[in-house]
Amino acid sequence: MGADELFGELEQAIVDHVFRIAPGYGMALGLHQYDGRLPDLRPESTDAWTAEADRLLVQLRSIPDDHLSPPRRHDRLLLQLLLESIIFDFREVGELERNPMAYVGVASLTAYTAREYAPAKFRAEGMVRVLQAIPAFLMAGRRRLRPVLPRPFVELALTIASGIPSDFAEGETLAIEAGEPLLSQFREARAEAETAVAAFAQALKVEYLPQSTAKFALGPEKYRRLLWVREGLTAPAEEILRRGRADLDRNQRRLAEIAAQMDPPVSVEQLLEVLQRDHPTAEGLLPAARADVELAKQFVISADLATVPANAQCRVKETPPPGRALSTASMDSPGPFEQSTDEGIYYVTLVDPAWPPDQQEQWLRNMNRNMLRNTAIHEVYPGHYLQFLHARAASSTLARKVFFSSAFCEGWAHYAEQLAIEAKYQDASTAAEATQLHDALLRDVRLVVSVGLHTQGMTLAQAAEMFEKEAHLGAMPAQREAIRGTFNPEYFGYTLGKLEILEAREKYLATTFGGSRRAFHDRLLSFGAPPVGLIGGLLGSST
Fold first, then answer.
1. Same structural domain, 206 and 253
2. For 270-310, how does the pLDDT look when each residue is reduced to its tens digit (9 = 90+)?
């Protein structure tokens, strides 16, 4: 057996080990042997997992470079980062001790109800096993959480918990389809799971919230480690911040130019005000989003930006209850191992009827017609969904199918917005470009705020103020964005990933791809979702 074949055995062992602690990730990738499983997050179990991960890392690093082909050297780094990333969360960050969302966020049945990847009976069996496991899982979480937790984490966990009963209700619809005896089993397990979720939420509200703290920052050293384990980046946070601020300045200058060129000239705030007033009704959000998806698809084809596979099909639905507190819009794409379907699901968060009228109007203004079109570019074509289709179609190794870089995925989708304007989407209208720039400012400020919150002592109030002032957001979305930065510092990836792709395009488009945007994009998307620190090396080699 050759060195690459022996490496393949280690590769499989590492991936199997990852799925033991993250079965939901395996399911999301389309490996349905992991359906119905929750991870064992008791301290003794995660300690044993990390000890075995240490052993696998030693084994991985002991392989000499000259024993592996160049493509497999790349895969070795992916596997290394895959293990280091989870060890970082467990040992260095203490995520399971400080973040209640690590527990309540798992209590969702959406993965079973969203698409018909298997008969109703099979999916309902998975749901029942999840529901049956939730009480013990949440109790283990309560035992593990520290007495004092970051306040934003507690508040968001409470919001997520409030949406879980509605999520379970959608699961019951599937259980009804499966029939007896599964329906009775589902209802019994659902009642016990809902009781456990309510008890967990009550503990958060009564025990944890009153003594919660404003402290959440990773600190400079952990932030530096985060950049490495997630994205293979060795650049210091200061360099990341410099690049983000430079992009923020560029986009602000261009948006100001557009406003000054209006007849009569207007301020940036006035320009955005006009755009935000043009929004669908609450009832019209989903129909408008569906029309925008088809418009974006036809544009990618006609502009020859990238290959759109013949099997591309995307459904548009309302965001499931647990995700509404955190998401404006999102894409659920089939994983690389999913055999049942190629269909993507584009989720859009609708107006909550319980909101007061002014809050409903503010949400609709945030989801104005031009922003919806830009979001369809980001989420569907040529953004997330098209990227996942290409990754699924690529002849790839196990490591490349399993590794997921948030900065690559979000960076590609954000780059897609800029690409669309460059390619004259919507006839390069002022409204389209201004909207894209407005969204780019949001992503730029995310990067700046991420570094600020976690390495420079920036407060939530300062972060929210920056989103309002520099990205021209309203008070409610600005506050949501600031809070997101406390638990998701990786939202730097939108801008950082975009900048890495633009750098690679500048370097390789003409010399390697003869100026063909489609050839460049198809090649880039064939890599799956690699760490953004590796993009240049991949494009510059035959790997």
1. no
2. 999 999 999 999 899 999 999 999 999 999 999 999 999 99
- Contact present, 193 and 168 (Cβ < 8 Å): yes
Residue 61 falls within a domain, yes or no?
A: yes
User: Is pLDDT above 70 for 45?
Assistant: yes
Q: Do the beta carbons of residue 185 and residue 128 sit within 8 Å?
A: yes
- At 542 the pLDDT is 55
- Least trusted range by pLDDT, from 32-36, 127-131, 312-316, 322-326: 322-326
Query: For 43, which DSSP code?
Result: H
Query: Greatest CA span in the chain, whole angstroms?
Result: 74
Closest CA to 237 of 448, 87, 406: 448
Dist CA 204 CA 384 (whole Å): 35
The whole-number pLDDT of residue 315 equals 94
Residue whose structure tokens are 């503990």:
203
Residue 146 placed within a domain: yes
- CA 477, CA 482: separation in Å to the nearest integer? 9
* Residue 85 amino acid letter: S
Q: Token digits for 468?
A: 């309002």
**DSSP secondary structure letter of residue 462:** H
Asked whether the beta carbons of 344 and 388 are under 8 A apart, the reply is: yes
The pLDDT of residue 2 is 64
Percentage, residues of the chain above pLDDT 70? 98
Quote the distance between the C-alpha of residue 350 and its chain's center: 19
What confidence score (pLDDT) does residue 429 get? 85
Asked if residue 18 belongs to a domain, the reply is: yes
Would you state the torsion angle of the CA atoms of residues 461, 465, 467, 471, taken in this order, to the nearest 10 degrees?
180
Residues 266 and 411 in one domain: yes
Question: Which of 221, 346, 207, 202 has its CA nearest to residue 287?
Answer: 346
Is the distance from CB of 306 to CB of 501 less than 8 angstroms?
Answer: no
Main-chain phi, psi angles of 104, to 5 degrees: -70, -25
Q: CB of 513 within 8 A of CB of 523?
A: yes
Range of the domain at 208: 3-215
Residue 475 pLDDT: 87
* Whole-number pLDDT of residue 9: 95
**Total tally of structural domains belonging to the chain:** 2
Mean pLDDT of 15-30: 96
Tens of pLDDT, residues 304-324: 999 999 989 999 999 887 667
Count other Cβ atoms within 10 Å, centred on residue 135. Answer: 18
User: What is the residue-wise DSSP string for 239-283?
Assistant: HHHHHHHHHHHHHHHHHHHHHHTSSS---HHHHHHHHHHS---TT
259 and 283 co-located in one domain: yes
Q: How far apart are CA 447 and CA 227, in angstroms?
A: 12
Q: How many CB atoms are closer than 10 A to CB 320?
A: 23
Phi and psi at residue 67, to the nearest 5°: -90, -5
Residues 6+ apart with CB under 8 A from 377: 296, 383, 416, 417, 420, 425
Cα atoms in the 13 Å half-sphere on the side-chain side of 123: 23
Residue 1's pLDDT is 53
